[in-house]
Amino acid sequence: MTRLLLPLAGLVVLAALPGFVSEYGLGLMIGAVTYVTLASAWALFSGYTRYISLATVAFYGTGAYVVAVLNEVLPYPLVLLVAALIGGAMALVVGLSTLRLAGVYFVIFTFGLSELVRQLITWYEVNVTGTLGRYIFLDISARGIYWQMLALAAVTIGLTAWIHRRPLGLALRVVGDDETVAAHSGINLARTKLIAFVLSSVILTLAGAIVSPRWVYVEPSIVFNPTVSFLTVIMALLGGANRLVGPALGAVPLFLTFEWLSANFPDTYSIFMGLLFIGVVFALPEGVLAGVDRLRARKLRAAA
Amino acid sequence: MLTTLILGLVLGGTYALLALGLTLQYGIARIMNLAYGELTLIAAFVVVAAFQAAGIPPLAALIAVVPAGYALGWVLYTVMMRPLVARSESRGRLEIDSILATFGLLFLIQGVLLVSFGANFTSISYLDRGVNVFGVSVALNRLIAFGICVVAAGALIWALARTRWGLVMRAVALTPGSAPLVGIDVNRVARQGFALGTALAAAGGVSVAMYQTFSATGGVVFTMKALVIVIMGGVGNVAGALIAGLALGLIETFVSTTIDPGLTMAATFLIFLIVLLWRPQGLFGRG
């Protein structure tokens, strides 16, 4: 029972927080929760299967762009629905064409995907609609965005926990450990990977759609910023991509660090980011949580 | 039409050269290097800086830049990649680790380039006069860039196919597990393969600097194109990479002249998709 009550109590506290912080604090909280959502959704697919997706921003940016295009035509809930559907369809195309093959094809494809989507939208806007850049005028307060994003983060982590106990979760873990074994034990590899990838991509798209009113002005080069994909991967890895709360644990401190870095060292920011990333890959390949577990195990053995 | 063909071949030469380096790094050293385009850009920026500051012509810079690329690759492999190779038990593990590590390297190099050279688009005008080729006027700098690519790629293909050194390289590419049984030091060969790949990236960078406009954030596009070519030609297949590179250059020039220059990336991706769905082992099979 406490396993369920504790997270719920935490969620209530987090939801009540906006009443006590400044406008700037709220902005920071929205950013942090957004990255918790992104990193958790990324890990939902990549953490178990070890298929590294570098296309987070392709979905995130698509979500934001759908809102920019449709916010004056459709009511808000419908816009979100359309965004989710488009993100899901994109993921289906990418997944169907690459997930049947060796993992490296998937990585390469996702590596260029955001650049492709950005170029296509730019081309379409310039040649067909004749405008580059759109405005989002939605009557949604910063608090509203925070609550929506918090709900999405909670759903993402809840969904991960739920899948973990289902046959799908078991299948995903076997796929991540050894695909040959997985195939021999009767797991439908392509379908398993595809379901997880589509689920994760829909969440990423929704995150982009929800946060988009914060931008007001939207342009392909703004919303398809490759740094977002990069940050998401490093956050999930730092916390531990195959743990339930690992991505969230990595996201909050890293988001605050990067926020501070980009405010104080805007020029050398990406150098720090690269160094930190390489550091994580070398020193903590399984994440901080696994490191803590190892330390604890060593202590127990020493005590015995 | 003939103009498109010749310009496409010239562009394709640069792409083929870039892809050769990448296929060496992936095929022999087993490192999937996502920072490859950034290595190319380092060379391109150095050439431009040397030309603008000291008036050193790119052709002369080539003599210094390529060995420097080899040295950089050697250091990168020893310091960064070797520990990853040593700790990975399986090929899949190494693939993931190398992708992640070089993804970090990508942003590191990009940051250094941005700080040292700024975010603006750069180009130089060097030997920018027309030369008549089969009735088409082509800038001399493009022809020289193409010449560099043909010479470098030709030498590499000859060396891999005909020399003892090439035989050792191919042995490691084919079965790294059995190569030690016949007395091959796999670690040394992998390091050479990676360094040579970086040297080719540098040569590609010199050729890019001679006739293209580029910026510090554009490395991803080079990496992406080189990756698509490697997969089209078949992983580790040097001749396949050469043909696929020329083909991609042709297709891209064709798309940008007849449809829209903004859609070249889309064309690249479309080809990639078709190859993946139709022949994932590459058009010419594995090398």
From TrEMBL, chain A:
What membrane topology was assigned to this protein in its record? Answer: Multi-pass membrane protein
Protein name per its UniProtKB record? Leucine/isoleucine/valine transporter permease subunit
Membrane-crossing segments per the record: 25-45, 52-70, 76-96, 103-124, 144-163, 194-216, 269-292
Alphabetical GO CC annotations of the entry are: plasma membrane
Organism superkingdom: Bacteria
The record ties this protein, via PANTHER family, to:
ABC TRANSPORTER ATP-BINDING PROTEIN, HIGH-AFFINITY BRANCHED-CHAIN AMINO ACID TRANSPORT SYSTEM PERMEASE
Q: Where in the cell is it found?
A: Cell membrane
Q: Which GO terms describe its molecular function?
A: branched-chain amino acid transmembrane transporter activity
Q: Which Pfam families match?
A: BPD_transp_2 (PF02653)
InterPro entries the UniProt entry points to: ABC_transp_permease, LivM-like
> Where is the major localization of this protein?
membrane
Species name: Palleronia marisminoris
Keyword Lipoprotein among UniProt keywords: no
**Which UniProt keywords are present, listed alphabetically?**
Cell membrane, Membrane, Transmembrane, Transmembrane helix
UniProtKB/TrEMBL annotation, chain B:
Q: What CDD domains does the entry give?
A: TM_PBP1_LivH_like
Source organism superkingdom: Bacteria
Which Gene Ontology cellular component annotation is one that this UniProt entry carries?
plasma membrane
Keyword Nucleotide-binding assigned to the entry: answer is no
Transmembrane stretches, start-end: 6-27, 34-53, 59-79, 99-119, 139-161, 194-214, 226-251, 263-281
Q: Does the keyword Transmembrane helix apply?
A: yes
Q: Which GO terms describe its biological process?
A: amino acid transport
Which InterPro entries does the record cross-reference, listed alphabetically?
ABC_transp_permease, BCAA_transport_permease
Any Pfam family from its record, for instance, is BPD_transp_2
Entry's localization field: Cell membrane
Main site of residence?
membrane
The GO molecular function terms of this record are:
transmembrane transporter activity
Keyword annotations for this protein, in alphabetical order, are:
Amino-acid transport, Cell membrane, Membrane, Transmembrane, Transmembrane helix, Transport
Q: How does it sit in the membrane?
A: Multi-pass membrane protein
Return the PANTHER family for the record: AMINO ACID ABC TRANSPORTER PERMEASE PROTEIN (PTHR11795:SF445), BRANCHED-CHAIN AMINO ACID TRANSPORT SYSTEM PERMEASE PROTEIN LIVH (PTHR11795)
Family to which the UniProt record says this protein belongs: Belongs to the binding-protein-dependent transport system permease family. LivHM subfamily.
Q: What is this protein called?
A: High-affinity branched-chain amino acid transport system permease protein LivH
